[in-house]
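Service request form, structural biology core

Requester: graduate student, group of Dr. S.
Request type: structure prediction, single chain
Budget code: on file
Notes: please return the result as structure tokens.

Sequence provided:
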Amino acid sequence: MDITLLHVCLLLITGFLAGIINTLAGGGSNLTLPALMIMGMPAEVANATNRVGVAMQAVTAVSGFKRHGKMDSDDIIPILIPSVIGGLIGAAAAAYMPTEYIKPVLLGTMLIMAAVMLVKPSFIAPEPGTLVNKVRDTPSSWWGLGIAGFYGGFIQAGVGFVLIAALAGTLRYDLVRANALKMLCTLVFTVVALGLFIAEGLVMWVPGLILAFGTMFGAHIAVNMAIKAQPATLKWFLFIMTLCGCIAALMF
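Core staff response, request fulfilled:
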């Protein structure tokens, strides 16, 4: 595939925006997946190549949140286990299942999240001072994290919303810490998924790395925004991105 200057600019700009959106909420892949397919990639190749940028933005975001002391470490391993298992199963599904399943799953997820945020916003954004639950004491979190991992391994686009629902909704983390743990989960199951896609020969490295440069820059800026933002601002940003995800799923 020939990569033009226009392609480079497209990948850098969409990657930058996706890095911000994914770090603060989710749904950035609704920008990057179409950008990759505009270049002529088949859907399954774009889905795989997109993971390079997702992985690198997650590395940047995780290090940033950790530097600011927003990465809770007490329960990381129990949180990661169901996410990784789900991510591996989801990646296998993405590699071997027909691509026509992607759109209905994406749209259904976005609609459910938008409905939850309208009907019960406190589920996604716990009040300050809410006590955090442990995974071992919250069986529903295993299902939530496993489903989020599967969804992330399968589609990736919008997985941030699903992870926030599991981390804030079942474990009651505030949105900043939920975002930090969300990026850690995303990093781990994306690496798992990426390994499978590489083995299947689905990753195009040059556009993937160009995209990654943009996502890393966006994630770096977004961490500083998340630390300084008011909880209400993050909640509204999350809701708006969920609606944008619904629109993108309809058009995708």
